[in-house]
Each structure stands twice: as structure tokens, then as C-alpha cells.
Amino acid sequence: MTHHDSHASPPSRAPAPWWIRLAFLGFLAVAGFFLLVEHGAHLFGALPYVLIGAFFALHVGMHAGHRHGGHRHDQTQPPPSNPATPTPEDRPRGGHQH
């Protein structure tokens, strides 16, 4: 008997009846409505800051996947002897280029 054999799997439960799931979804809808109505002014007041933060985070995240020229972190490797010149077909489509 190994270590993994001593653990019994938890018993599987039957899914909740449809009327319980429907009641729960109705409760969530009503709670969401009142949360939005009662606290909407606070949520919409913070929306510009949330959007600016989201744009900044997405911009930084997009730059995490590639390196820019001149940002060499490892100085022990020599530069490539014959760097290939990118053609217009090799460049990514879109307006954000460095």
C-alpha cells in the first residue's frame, strides 16, 4: 500500500435541483441590482482611476513578452554578428512600435 492509496476520495454529491439553482440565481440578481443602485455613485466615481490603472497594467504586460533594443541585461554575451533586418512582413501589425 502506497501513501496515495490511504487517501479516500470524497463522496460525489448529486447536483442541486433546478429550483434551488434558479432561486440562487434570482437571489444573486436581486443582490447585484441593489448593490449597483445603492453603491453606484462610489463605483462610477472610481471608474476613471480603474480604467487608467487597467490601461497601465495592460501596457506593462504587453511589454513583458519582448525585449527592446538597448535593454541588455546580460553584458557577457556579444551582440549578434549579422542581425537580420526585419522586412515589413516580419513586423507586427498595429500602430505601437518601438
From TrEMBL:
Residues 88-98 have a biased composition (Basic and acidic residues). Keywords: Membrane, Transmembrane, Transmembrane helix. Coiled coil: none annotated. InterPro entries: DUF2933. Residues 77-86 have a biased composition (Pro residues). Pfam families: DUF2933. The chain crosses the membrane at residues 18-37, 43-62. The keyword Iron does not apply. The keyword Transmembrane helix applies. Residues 65-98 are annotated as: Disordered. This is DUF2933 family protein.
